[in-house]
Amino acid sequence: MPNRSVDRLRQSLRDLDQAVDSAQAGRHERTCFAAHQATERAVNALRLSHRQEVWGHVIGRLLRRLPEAASPADSLVEPGQALDNFFIPSRYPQGHPEGAPLEHYGPLVSQEVICHDRTIVDFVRDQLARRWAGPRRCTPPGAGGRGAPSGRDAHRPFRFVPPGRLGCGRRCRPADHRHGIRRALRPAVARL
Known about the structure:
Largest sheet: none
Low-confidence stretches: 136-187
CATH architecture of the largest domain: Up-down Bundle
CATH class of the largest domain: Mainly Alpha
Structural class: mainly alpha
Shape: elongated
Distance between the termini: 23 Å
Helix content: 40-55%
Oligomer: single chain
Order of helices and strands: HHHHHH
CATH superfamily of the largest domain: Nucleotidyltransferases  domain 2
Number of strands: 0
C-alpha cells in the first residue's frame, strides 16, 4: 500500500483554508469543525508516515500515541484536547443543553480554534519534512561530488531553504542534497 501521508497533509491544509474562510463568513460553528478535521487529518498523516494505524477522532489521544521520534510536547497535546471539544457539539444541537450550534460559537472561539489548528499542523509539517529529508548532510557548493551543481545549474544562485522544511538549513537547493530525498516527494513538499 502506498504511503498517502502527503495527500492527507495537503487535504489538511485545504481544510484549514476552509476553516479560515468560514470564520471570515461568520459561520463559526463550521470553523470549529473544519479546524478539528484539519488537525485530525494532519496528525493522521504523521501517523501514516510512521506506519501506524490511523483510527479515531480524538486528537489528544492520536498525538499521545505517536512514536517517540515524533512525539510532541505536552504543550502541543493541550491544544489538541481543546479541539476535541468541537468535534460533535459544533455540528449537532444535541451537543448543547439548548439552541443550535450556530448560537454557541463566535469570532473569539474561531480565532482560538484556528490558532490551535495552525500550531499542530505546523508541527506535523515540520515532522514530515524532517522525516522525508532523512539525515541532514549535504555537499557544500563547489565541493564537487554528486551534489555539486554543474553544467547549466552552476551559474544559478542557491535558493535558501528554511530549516524545518527541506534541506539542512544551509544555502542550497534540495537537488544539491545527498541524503536521499525521494524524488516523488520533492515536488509535493515544495508545494506545501
